[in-house]
Design a protein that fits this description.
34% of the residues lie in helices and 18% in strands. It has 405 residues and is α+β, with helices and mostly antiparallel strands.
């Protein structure tokens, strides 16, 4: 064993000794999970193939969903009676407490509005991160990074050992914050690429993200209830996906950045900003690779919806702003200029042919995935955040989105 990089202490031959794990038992987490997951089938639950922590119980028209994370459990469904039976069975088998409606889960804050909408944020966690880094009295920023920002690995003076550990701590906290803040996904992905050898320029970029969060502490994702009914509904839903790529955007290795966001009924449920594994020879190729990654995520979400017994309305629509990439995904002719591309990248073309998804062109100004591939100016950044229903809790209560539309 060895000490983790960036946290070495003298003498370096020493490592941390684990005195007690969860509940004081060795392999307690594994034992608990195995015990719990073997008991659930006796109640009629079936595990989801798409998500091993999700279990579904179907009894006639009644449906109950159970989500397990270590010893934290979320139970929901469309039948209060069946949910009550499940709770009673679990409490008879395990020492469990019913904490009532979900308000706080793994750092996520859930707030319920009068009209039935749900607002999910990480305000408390974000406040703790800002306090931890000593930026309580800092000035806020209107964007998480400068427009068109490019960071170079040797840019600026290298951080000393203490500041390097501080930088890694900040970035680690920011990564967890992206669960409800898609607006910082690109900026956090950018600074994450310099964990091994950070400089003061990289540290300043990370602190700018914190200053942006300081001014948007109460921001979160607004999940709007369907307009047709005020009851728990499992009616068919609409799925849309947006993908984009910043061709050769990384000046260090000239790799492109993939960005995508997937929406259910207009609300983002999955997003990503990551650097592609291979260098693309053209913007079309970079977009084509981005489409493959997005299609893969859409396919997984379709499997998840199937496990949840929720029907997706029509075929999911994949929006792309590159006409050439759209043509390659729909044209069965193999172009000679794409012979070097790996076979798995043609996954999108196969799914289009199979009828799993459909493609649609979208203008660059309406490309929601732009938020995940580059630093944007303030007006465009705010416009895309509004389009993704990323607003404050107060704005959601006042119907901010309806007013903007």
């Amino acid at each position: 064993m060895s000490q983790p990089g960036g946290f070495e202490q003298q003498p370096t031959s020493h490592v941390c000794r684990l005195n007690k794990s969860l509940y004081g038992l060795k392999q307690a987490l594994r034992a608990w999970n195995e015990k719990f997951t073997t008991f659930l089938p006796s109640l009629g639950f079936k595990p989801s193939y798409a998500d091993p922590s999700l279990f579904v119980l179907i009894s006639g028209s009644s449906k109950v969903y159970l989500l397990l994370y270590v010893d934290d459990i979320i139970i929901t469904g469309n039948s209060e009676n069946l949910i009550g039976e499940v709770k009673s069975s679990l409490q008879a088998e395990f020492d469990m407490s019913d904490l009532g409606p979900l308000h706080f889960f793994l750092g996520l804050e859930i707030k319920y509005m009068k009209n039935g909408d749900v607002f999910v944020s990480q305000q408390k966690y974000a406040s703790e991160v800002i306090h931890k880094t000593g930026l309580d009295s800092c000035h806020s920023q209107i964007t998480p990074c400068q427009s068109g920002l490019k960071l170079i690995k040797d840019m600026g003076q290298q951080l000393d050992k203490q500041d390097s550990a501080h930088f890694r701590s900040i970035v680690g906290c920011l990564q967890y914050l992206t669960f409800t803040r898609p607006d910082i996904a690109y900026s956090v992905n950018l600074v994450c690429q310099f964990m091994h050898c950070p400089t003061y320029t990289h540290l300043n970029a990370a602190k700018r993200i914190l200053r942006y969060i300081k001014g948007t502490l109460d921001y979160g994702i607004w999940f709007r209830r369907g307009q047709t009914t005020k009851k728990f509904s499992l009616s068919p839903i609409k799925m849309d996906a947006y993908c984009d790529a910043d061709w050769a955007g990384d000046p260090n290795d000239r790799k492109s950045t993939t960005g995508f966001v997937i929406l259910l009924e207009g609300t983002p449920v999955s997003w990503c900003s990551k650097k592609q594994t291979a260098v693309s020879r053209s913007s079309t190729e970079a977009e084509y690779r981005s489409m493959a990654d997005t299609t893969s995520e859409v396919k997984w979400l379709l499997h998840l919806m199937q496990d949840l017994h929720i029907e997706v309305l029509d075929k999911p629509t994949l929006h792309c702003d590159n006409i050439s990439a759209l043509a390659l995904a729909t044209n069965p002719v193999f172009h000679s200029k794409l012979k070097h591309i790996e076979v798995d990248v043609h996954f999108t073309r196969d799914q289009v042919k199979a009828g799993t998804i459909k493609l649609k062109f979208v203008g660059s100004k309406e490309q929601l995935a732009d938020l995940f591939t580059k630093g944007l100016c303030s007006p465009q950044h705010r416009y895309l955040c509004d389009s993704l229903k990323l607003v404050s809790h107060l704005q959601a209560e006042e119907g901010y989105y309806e007013n903007k539309v």
